Amino acid sequence: MKTFSIRFQSQTWSGDTITANAEVTSVNMDDGDEYVEADLHVVRADGERVLTGQATAVLPE
Questions:
Q1: Is residue 40 within 8 Å of 57, Cβ to Cβ?
Q2: 49: Cα separation from own chain's centroid
Q3: pLDDT tens digit string along 32-42?
Q4: What residues have CB less than 8 Å from 35, skipping those under 6 apart?
């Protein structure tokens, strides 16, 4: 993991069903390393988005 940032937008409670999602937004090269950038979000079963974020990860060779 190169970078990782999240923002909690709503509270979750014990027993809540949540679903985590990531969407790759780009694939790039930097100093010979290939990496992906992704948007992240977590949604509660009622449809409310409870977390958003971004991540950058270096792909294995």
A1: no
A2: 13
A3: 899 999 999 99
A4: 2, 27, 28, 29, 56, 57, 58, 59
DSSP 10: S
For residue 30, pLDDT beyond 90: no
What span, in angstroms and rounded, lies between the C-alpha atoms of 56 and 28? 10
Q: Could you tell me the two tokens for 50?
A: 């409870």
**What structural domains and CATH numbers belong to the chain?**
3-58 (3.10.129.10)
- The β-bridge relationship of strands 3-8 and 18-30 is unpaired
* Tokens matching residue 47: 């449809």
